[in-house]
Amino acid sequence: MRVIDTSSRMLGIFALVIIITGSLSYGAQHSSSGKNSEPSQQNAVDDLNSRTGPYFDLAASKNVTALLGKTTYLNCRVKNLGNKTSVALQVSWVRHRDIHLLTIGRYTYTSDQRFRAIHNVHSDDWTLQIKFPQLRDSGIYECQVSTTPHMSHFVHLNVVEPTTEILGGPDLYIDHGSTINLTCIVLNSPEPPAYIFWNHNDAIISYDSGRGGVSVVTEKGETTTSFLLVQYATPSDSGQYTCNPSNAQPKSITVHVLNGEYPAAMQHGGQAKQPRLYSLLLCLCLLLY
Ligand SMILES: *[C@@H]1O[C@H](CO)[C@@H](O)[C@H](O)[C@H]1NC(C)=O
Ligand SMILES: *[C@@H]1O[C@H](CO)[C@@H](O)[C@H](O)[C@H]1NC(C)=O
Ligand SMILES: *[C@@H]1O[C@H](CO)[C@@H](O)[C@H](O)[C@H]1NC(C)=O
Hints:
This is Ntm_1 protein. The radius of gyration is 34 Å and the shape is rod-shaped. It has 289 residues and is an alpha+beta fold. The protein is 20% helix and 36% strand.
């Protein structure tokens, strides 16, 4: 009985010594440059884990904004995957909305043909390809590594559809005799629209009509811009103008050609700002002198 008692006491003292020396060396490591001191056992284990365990490269596994219908890629970069010896770790993609398993490793698991797993040997990238992305594909996708417990990284996919904008809307006030200049912008279109029609009060504007002085300039690119110019505006040019891109929603603006009268809405326009600037300068001058 006595022998066990002393040995357990010795064990207790021994443990205490370990704890004290442990915390001493921990303190030393953190107060000194840390070069000469022995790291504590726990630190050593942590270091080993972080060096050998897999981890996500977040900078290469980012959220994605995709254009409706245009093939997109969600990437998951896992570092140190092959380092956990015996068990082969798998990287999977799971759609969060319905916990649907899409890919396992290089194998595409889902029957939805739009999804595909892409992985090149010796690469850390596990990519999910999505063809013809739809708005309903927006949401969270989970990149999962089959460690125990699982490691997860969440990638948000945002699918955006083309939008149409007309600058200066919804109402535009133009002086009689000046040029109506309407600017229509098509954003988020995977391909530039094949054509953009302009309508005036439901009739397609014809550039070679008797009206004359009508022209359209369209600049195609990542954002497509179409300018409609109507020279020598008369009150009959008033009304609704609609920009109709072939692959995006139409957008309208109401043009008011003025006959000398100025409606209240004008006061909020560009001209109202100038007197205010002058009074500001005046105040500044008064302050200076
Ligand atoms: C991804 O998007 C979500 C939701 O908008 C956001 O909470 C998260 O911080 C984003 N992650 C990164 C890495 O930007
Ligand atoms: C484990 O990872 C380290 C650091 O990335 C590397 O130098 C080493 O070769 C890897 N070992 C194996 C067995 O893959
Ligand atoms: C029409 O307006 C747009 C946008 O304000 C401008 O860039 C363009 O130069 C204008 N075109 C003409 C002919 O005034």
